Amino acid sequence: MPELPEVETTRRGVAPHISGRTVRDVVVRERRLRWEVPRRLPAELRGTVLATPQRRGKYLLFPAENGTAIMHLGMSGSLRMVVHETPPAKHDHIDIVLDGPYRMRYNDPRRFGALLWTRADPLRHPRLARLGPEPFDPVFCGDYLRRLAHRRKTSIKQFIMDASVVVGVGNIYANEALYRAGINPGRGAGRVGAERMSRLARAATEVLGEAIVAGGTTLRNFVGGDGEPGYFQFDLDVYGREGQPCSGCGTAIRRRWLGQRATFFCPACQR
Question: How many CB atoms lie within 10 A of CB 112?
Answer without folding.
Answer: 15
